[in-house]
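Running low. Got one?
___
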Amino acid sequence: MPVHRLGFGAMRITGDGIWGPPRDHDAAIAVLRRAVELGVDLIDTADSYGPAVSEELIAEALSPYPDGLVVATKGGLERPGPGVWTRNGRPEHLRVACEDSLRRLRVERIDLYQLHSPDADVPYEDSVGTLAELQAEGKIRHIGISNVSVAQLEQAREIVDVVSVQNRFNLTDREDAEVLEACERAHIAFIPWRPLETDGLTEPGGVVAEIAERHDATPSQVAIAWLLAHSPVMLPIPGTGSVKHLEDNMLGASIVLTDDDLRRLDEAA
């Protein structure tokens, strides 16, 4: 399923701390609808965002979904309380989680369903195998995985056709560079979470601040432009609860960084 290389992450349309409903319900709906108007055709969410709230808002704002729009969601994390994220990769939980996401998103099949994180208490092959079963039952179209090592990626690929990996990656955190390289070799989409982090690089005189000023851009736009230039399989999904911030982020795809810009940013971390 082809999508543009700049999607939208729907984590921050929920309440503070990714818990409960947003402070401004209508603003959250407006952000989702504006994202689609701007050409976004991949919206990423998870059952744990809210929990449940993000999926419900997506369905309210966009269902019935326009042709070509991919709504991706995730299962495998639970939210027993604000600020608490616990892993649950048990097959029985993933089955219920998938069924609940189908209902909230108002679809008969989820285009991209991602295992949110490996669970140390559950054999990884059991969790991934459950997604394979749900795919065979027609409830999932494509399978992705998240927060994985290279070894876990290869283990999952022995069980299913993995089309995406979602790990943390940004200008200041490239710890998963080897996972990105593995995705490049296998032509698997790499979806970086926290794509806009630029810790310490936006201070006056910092490399991001200087490059942003020269391109008449924001640091966030430079971060997006760098990600897109860094790898052909990179698929950033910056998220926000503000239409203005959404519009600003989308402009990051139009910035053309010079070779010198890229060299300096590559060396900045």
About this structure: The CA atoms of residues 143 and 161 lie 7 Å apart. The chain has one domain: 8-197+232-241. DSSP finds ten helices and nine strands in the chain.
